[in-house]
Write a structure and sequence with these properties.
Blueprint (H helix, E strand, L loop, with lengths): L1 H37 L5 H24 L11 H18 L4 H12 L8 H22 L10 H50 L10 H18 L3 E8 L2 H27 L5 E6 L2 E7 L3 H16 L11 E7 L6 H17 L5 E3 L1 H6 L1
Parallel strand pairs: 4-5
Antiparallel strand pairs: 1-3, 1-4, 2-3
Pfam family, one: GGDEF
Enzyme class: transferase
Keywords: Membrane, Nucleotidyltransferase, Transferase, Transmembrane, Transmembrane helix
Length: 366
């Protein structure tokens, strides 16, 4: 709810900013038309009627924004009303005073840039298709009377001021939309970063600081594909903390969690940069060792086993682990490879725990 309110407030602020910019452009255009009257190129009455039409229309739109009435419309920004007001005023003045055709045409081009604000493309194309038809009719009817007011110094200054106003208005719109583009890009980058962090959390075990089962399993499949493609060796080790149930029974889950955290930190500090360690389930951890022969894996895991025995979470807790190791066989799925390591680990449990046991099939293959 708070986010929706903040978004609405930002939208409301931008709407008012654009509305004020449109009103200022109308004030500037009216001042230029008055300048044409003063220089003798247009009649005062026609320009004043133009001004009254714009004041009435912009006054109504201002009321619609301030009262909230515009929020009940399909187009709360009242884009179509803005466009119809501006275009009808300019076309009417062009028809009545073709002598100021140059300013009228430039104004129509400037207003066309507002098409970026249309909520639907159909409203933009319908508006400007009708405008082009109307301009064609007016040119046909009033073409001989249309002119550029550049035959006097005052007319030259007014013509230049018309171009300045048109370019300035288009520049403001370009700046506005470039700003929106930068903000959208920044928001997209933040969203991408947040999604990457979420993706990382999905594969991360918060308690132990290593990968979770999903993360380590995905990494295993990647390593198997690489080993199969390049013919490189690959080993996995399944590590199980001995007598973990007794630790939980005696010290509670807090004590068990402390042991798991300490073991996760140990794995993180002992493995190589190319290795991947993850919590496979409960007190079991899977270690993936790419480009590693079975005897090399045995050396690494034996060092980890010895370091585990040195861990001291509580003074009277003696921690040890039993490890089963297997080596990848060409064409073998990852589940089968882990299953062989699991069987070797259980063989180590059966023969007394606290040891590293190699899978027999892997030993023969090696």
């Amino acid at each position: 709810m708070h986010t929706d309110a903040a978004q609405f407030e930002r939208w409301r602020k931008r709407t008012w900013q654009l509305h004020i910019s449109v009103m200022l452009s109308h004030v500037y255009a009216f001042a230029l038309f008055l300048g044409h009257c003063w220089a003798g190129y247009a009649d005062w009455s026609a320009v004043l009627w133009y001004g009254l039409w714009v004041v009435a229309g912009m006054g109504f739109i201002t009321w619609a924004y301030a009262s909230g009435w515009s929020q009940t419309r399909r187009d709360p920004g009242l884009f179509l009303m803005h466009q119809l007001l501006s275009i009808s005023a300019v076309l009417g003045l062009l028809l009545a005073q073709p002598q100021v055709a140059f300013q009228a045409m430039v104004m129509l081009l400037a207003f066309s840039a507002d098409g970026f604000l249309a909520r639907r493309r159909t409203s933009f194309w319908m508006t400007w298709s009708g405008t082009l038809v109307a301009v064609a009719v007016i040119i046909y009817l009033k073409g001989p009377q249309m002119r550029m007011t550049t035959d006097t110094l005052a007319g030259q200054l007014l013509a230049f001021a018309v171009m300045v106003g048109g370019v300035f208005r288009c520049s403001l719109l370009v700046t506005y939309f470039r700003g929106m583009q930068y903000r959208l890009r920044a928001a997209h980058d933040k969203l991408a970063e947040a999604l990457a962090q979420i993706e990382e959390l999905v594969r991360f075990d918060e308690l132990t600081g290593v990968a979770n089962r999903k993360g380590v399993t995905e990494r295993l499949h990647q390593c198997i594909e690489a080993a199969a493609r390049h013919g490189r060796p690959l080993c996995v080790g399944l590590l199980d903390i001995d007598h973990f149930k007794q630790i939980n029974d005696r010290y509670g889950h807090d004590g068990g969690d402390a042991v798991l955290r300490a073991f996760g930190r140990l794995l993180f500090t002992q493995i190589r940069a190319s290795d991947c360690a993850g919590r496979y389930g409960g007190e079991e951890f899977l270690l993936i060792m790419p480009d590693t022969e079975l005897h090399q894996a045995q050396v690494l895991l034996e060092r980890i086993r010895q370091q585990t025995a040195l861990l001291r979470v509580h003074a009277d807790i003696q921690i040890s682990c039993t490890v089963g190791v297997s080596q990848y066989r060409p064409g073998e799925p990852g589940e089968a490879m882990v299953s062989r390591a699991d069987a070797a680990m259980y063989a180590g449990k059966a023969s007394g725990r606290n040891r590293v046991v190699l899978d027999r099939g892997s030993s023969e293959a090696a």
